[in-house]
Design a protein that fits this description.
329 residues, alpha/beta, 9 helices, 41% helix, potassium transport
Amino acid sequence: MILCWQKSPLLALMFLLFFGSIEVLYFSASLIKFLEGAWLPILLALFLMILMFVWHYATIKKYEFDLHNKVSLDWLLALGEKLGIVRVPGIALVYTDLVAGVPANFSHFVTNLPAFHRILVFVCVKSVPVPFVPPAERYLVGRVGPPNHRSYRCIVRYGYRDVQEDINAFESELIASLSDFVWLEASLRGHQSGESVDGYEYGLTVAGSSLLTRYRLNDNAELPSEENAIELAPETTVKKVRFFLEENNNSALSEAVREELEDLLAAREFGCTFILGHSHVRAKPGSSIMKKLAIDIAYNFLRRNCRGPDVALRVPPASLLEVGMVYVL
């Protein structure tokens, strides 16, 4: 991601010189007085830097592992009753760090328990380098597979000063975003009835622009076209899902679209299940001693003593389902 602050380069240079000079003065003074007690802050800074490097290194390696072991979309679409797969009522929110493809923890879950919910949503929570994300632009929603598969992808974006809402509000806003996506996609297809709309079949939609704009959102340069996105005009109010159909009873909705919206409402009544990965990380055989110390000891110690993803995401324990995954980095 490239973030443009639209500030003068001179202002950025002044910021660098001002704070950089303070850091240089402090560090040089610590070096001069190193043997007289200044070794303590230097050692503390080095220790904290090593901890941050280990955490960052292992996190990047875990993401690369997920990226290389993700499952193709064809595998998900091939799952059906012929293979003994059962679709149960309700909504499954599968949390993943990937913005494309099917995460390996979901394939591991289906392999051991051949059933998943009628409504399937792959949720990716992203932190963006801005203070606040407007509520109308928070949810980036797309479809995974054909409409009758009832599978979606949702990227939830938070700024570094945003406070995550309680889980009930999150569920309501997420389902409202899904219903808005279904309605907007149907409207788009209606306006382009004489044109090919295959490019929008797996598109992502976000409220945040007054123009329909296509752009690519991907993990890397080799991802397929399912990450194409569409920016749509922001909504002035947030609609509740249970009132969505009532407000559009007289609209020209197709039977398939109305059935999909009714399925969303019915699944919401059965509740949401949160599927998270429970990772077990270890260095691969043949790794160097430094890598084994960093991953097997340092990173695992940090991971055991920090908040888990279920706590950070405020997932209710009664609705939590964890899938064990072994990461060999």
